[in-house]
């Protein structure tokens, strides 16, 4: 399957066209929202020692991938070029930037599969396969995965140089331009990538459910069970992101013959799932999400006390001290 968004049009597409201006505004807004969300996940893992678990390290690496797409690809390439109408980088450099961003999307999906397997072994074999859950093993596995993605970027880029088929941002289509070769089974693979982790996560959740019933009187076990149930729902939501991107990019992009719809299917959805990924990780994080609720409660209590003192002022009186 090939997706070709190259253009032979001589018209000028820049900020004077409403699709370009609106697309640039939406991309900037997405990055403005997504960068703090994903950065908070990274800072949470780096700063807080209690948060340095294998699961949180996976989330931090995933958030770093999201930051690259939102900052380097979207803010660095897509937004300025959609406004001025032409590329600001050499073709080879821009091609590498975009290809690497696409590979990070695939990397995140591989990571989702590993995350579900990680939770599965953590639940069913917590002692026998404890080394699989360690930070060192998880880091080694991610280094190998990054190496695989880097190798894929290098080989694909060399092939594009040989065939003069660079990928670059198209100000007309508001998406990458050029021919992107995808396997014919790519969409089916994206469907499988959500079904397989969902099955693994379901088995894990059922196991947690029965453990929770058996240990319902022990507060520590209840707390651990709640944490793992939350991680189950987090991984289920994250597993669906790649499928959503593939559905719009491979199936729904031809429904409407308008370049803004092309932007929505190929660019906006791709960017938005990285924003949504950061939001999911933040909301399910044991430290970040409750912290926001506590902060909100403290603010409400402070305002309430202030208003009470303002409406009902109190004055105290004490008799004068007698002179001895």
From TrEMBL:
The keyword Ribosomal protein does not apply. The chain crosses the membrane at residues 22-47, 67-89, 95-117, 129-151, 189-208, 260-284. Signal peptide: none annotated. InterPro entries: 7TM_GPCR_serpentine_rcpt_Srx. Pfam families: 7TM_GPCR_Srx. Residues 28-285 form the 7TM GPCR serpentine receptor class x (Srx) domain. SUPFAM superfamilies: Family A G protein-coupled receptor-like (SSF81321). Keywords: Membrane, Receptor, Transmembrane, Transmembrane helix. This is 7TM GPCR serpentine receptor class x (Srx) domain-containing protein. It comes from Caenorhabditis elegans. The lineage of its organism: Eukaryota, Metazoa, Ecdysozoa, Nematoda, Chromadorea. The gene is srx-78.
């Amino acid at each position: 399957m090939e997706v070709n968004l190259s253009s032979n049009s001589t018209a000028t597409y820049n900020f004077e066209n409403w699709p370009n201006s609106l697309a640039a505004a939406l991309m900037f807004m997405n990055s403005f929202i997504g960068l703090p969300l994903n950065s908070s996940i990274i800072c949470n893992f780096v700063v807080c020692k209690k948060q340095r678990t294998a699961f949180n390290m996976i989330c931090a690496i995933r958030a770093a991938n999201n930051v690259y797409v939102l900052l380097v690809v979207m803010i660095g390439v897509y937004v300025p070029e959609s406004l001025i109408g032409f590329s600001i980088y050499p073709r080879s450099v821009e091609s590498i930037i975009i290809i690497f961003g696409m590979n990070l999307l695939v990397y995140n999906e591989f990571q989702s599969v590993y995350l579900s397997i990680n939770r599965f072994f953590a639940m069913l074999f917590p002692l026998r396969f404890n080394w699989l859950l360690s930070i060192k093993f998880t880091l080694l596995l991610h280094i190998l995965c990054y190496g695989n993605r880097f190798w894929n970027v290098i080989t694909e880029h060399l092939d594009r140089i040989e065939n003069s088929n660079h990928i670059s941002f198209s100000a007309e289509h508001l998406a990458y331009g050029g021919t992107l070769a995808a396997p014919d089974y790519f969409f089916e693979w994206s469907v499988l990538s959500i079904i397989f982790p969902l099955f693994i996560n379901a088995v894990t959740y059922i196991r947690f459910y029965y453990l929770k019933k058996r240990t319902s009187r022990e507060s520590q076990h209840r707390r651990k069970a709640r944490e793992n149930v939350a991680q189950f729902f987090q991984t289920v939501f994250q597993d669906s992101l790649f499928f959503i991107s593939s559905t719009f990019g491979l199936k729904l992009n031809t429904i409407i013959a308008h370049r803004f719809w092309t932007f929505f299917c190929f660019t906006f959805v791709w960017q938005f799932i990285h924003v949504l990924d950061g939001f999911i990780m933040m909301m399910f994080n044991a430290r970040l999400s409750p912290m926001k609720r506590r902060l909100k409660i403290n603010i409400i209590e402070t305002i309430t006390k202030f208003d009470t003192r303002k409406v009902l002022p109190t004055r105290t009186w004490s008799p004068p001290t007698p002179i001895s």
